């Protein structure tokens, strides 16, 4: 394919990376800025601005409000892999995946009413601390090590897969996308801690939603209207693929997606350190509960938009399937290819799409890096240090180690 990125596309991509970095810088210097403002406006001298410590880095002083938390809970596992995969699912197989909304309706209330209150009432930093209370130290250590390995592979895949797909479709060098995305995510996570992570998640979710809607709208316009998209999808049997078969060996069915999907969603939102850390960062349990429950409509709406993008792609390529014609090497390159074709001659918009893909990757990487640093310090390093020396790590040393872990461990995620 001859379509490549214009210099303005790279400029748009660089602009959003700078915005994310600026959020990290702001939260890094948020404390001294507030101190200076207190002095300038002669506020109550007894009013103290808390110094950065591990609770600030990992939990935002447990004072985060609903808006950043609800967005971050959603964005943390909204990876670029799932973004491209869900679109491809609708293109190739149809919209049966929409039944995942049933899974959301089962899993999120369970996470909000059963799992989250247990962790919140214990005032934990790491979810694995609960395992020590219940089963002993060895179980906590084993679970922590498994989590670190799982998250290491997950972050690597979340970073590498979209970079490779865009590189093969657009000609963007693979090393550029890997290096810039990994470096920016590490930069703002290290500087700003959990506050920077959740506020960049807010912005990234806005960029993702706006960008996908733009793709859907442009595709509908070029195809000839929503009725044309609907008729083509109906004729191609992309709207009648629902199965109520109880056979557990089927690829998908309503029951598999509803109950199997609920188990998968609950494992993430009910017990994963990345999500538990966000609940523990809330200013009260009511905020945490609302953040979880609001993810039902938010995830449902976003899933519908992704599937709509897949149907638009099916209608647009009805006369020339890019997968069958070998215009793309793999099916998961369909969304990047669709954008390159739809917005050919509108370079800045293609750059916005590049930002969309990497916004999804950045949200996953930054959330994973912060949770990894939390687990390594709280579940592995501190218990090991106490076992060897009989003393806990000093608070200032904990803060330094938290920063170093955020900065150091992401270097091993680059494939």
UniProtKB/TrEMBL annotation:
Gene Ontology molecular function terms on file: symporter activity
InterPro entries linked: Na/Glc_symporter_sf, Na/solute_symporter, Sodium:Solute_Symporter_SSF
Domain of life of the organism encoding this protein: Eukaryota
Protein name stated in the entry: Sodium-coupled monocarboxylate transporter 1
Assigned protein family: Belongs to the sodium:solute symporter (SSF) (TC 2.A.21) family.
Record-level GO cellular component terms: plasma membrane
Localisation: Cell membrane
Organism of provenance: Clonorchis sinensis (Chinese liver fluke)
Topology term for the membrane: Multi-pass membrane protein
UniProt keyword annotations, A-Z: Cell membrane, Ion transport, Membrane, Sodium, Sodium transport, Transmembrane, Transmembrane helix, Transport
An annotated GO BP: sodium ion transport
């Amino acid at each position: 394919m001859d379509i490549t990125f214009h210099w303005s596309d790279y400029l748009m991509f660089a602009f959003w990376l700078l915005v994310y970095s600026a959020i990290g810088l702001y939260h890094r210097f948020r404390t001294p800025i507030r101190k200076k403002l207190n002095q300038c406006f002669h506020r109550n001298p007894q009013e103290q601005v808390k110094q950065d410590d591990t609770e600030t880095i990992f939990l935002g002083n447990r004072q985060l409000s609903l808006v950043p938390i609800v967005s971050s809970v959603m964005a943390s596992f909204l990876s670029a892999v799932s973004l491209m995969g869900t679109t491809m699912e609708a293109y190739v197989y149809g919209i049966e995946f929409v039944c995942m909304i049933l899974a959301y309706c089962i899993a999120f209330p369970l996470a909000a009413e059963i799992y989250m209150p247990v962790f919140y009432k214990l005032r934990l930093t790491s979810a694995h601390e609960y395992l020590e209370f219940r089963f002993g130290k060895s179980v906590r250590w084993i679970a922590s090590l498994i989590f670190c390995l799982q998250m290491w592979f997950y972050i690597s895949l979340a970073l590498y897969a979209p970079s490779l797909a865009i590189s093969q479709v657009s000609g963007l060098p693979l090393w550029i996308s890997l290096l810039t995305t990994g470096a920016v995510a590490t930069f703002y996570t290290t500087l700003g801690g959990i506050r920077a992570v959740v506020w960049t998640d807010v912005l990234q979710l806005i960029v993702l939603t706006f960008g996908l809607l733009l793709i859907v709208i442009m595709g509908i316009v070029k195809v000839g209207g929503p009725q044309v998209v609907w008729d083509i999808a109906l004729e191609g049997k992309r709207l009648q693929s629902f199965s109520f078969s109880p056979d557990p060996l089927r690829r998908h069915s309503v029951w598999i997606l509803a109950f199997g999907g609920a188990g998968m969603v609950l494992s993430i939102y009910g017990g994963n350190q990345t999500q538990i850390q966000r609940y523990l960062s809330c200013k009260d349990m009511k905020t945490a509960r609302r953040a979880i429950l609001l993810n039902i409509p938010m995830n449902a709406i976003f899933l519908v938009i992704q599937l709509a993008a897949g149907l638009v792609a099916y209608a647009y390529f009805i006369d020339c399937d890019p997968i069958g014609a070998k215009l793309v090497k793999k099916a998961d390159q369909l969304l990047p290819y669709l954008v390159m074709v739809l917005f050919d001659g509108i370079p800045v918009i293609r750059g916005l799409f590049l930002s969309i893909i990497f916004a999804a990757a950045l949200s996953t990487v930054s959330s994973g890096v912060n949770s990894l640093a939390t687990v390594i310090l709280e579940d592995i390093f501190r218990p090991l240090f106490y076992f060897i020396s009989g003393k806990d790590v000093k608070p200032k040393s904990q803060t330094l180690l938290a920063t170093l872990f955020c900065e150091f461990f992401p270097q091993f995620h680059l494939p």
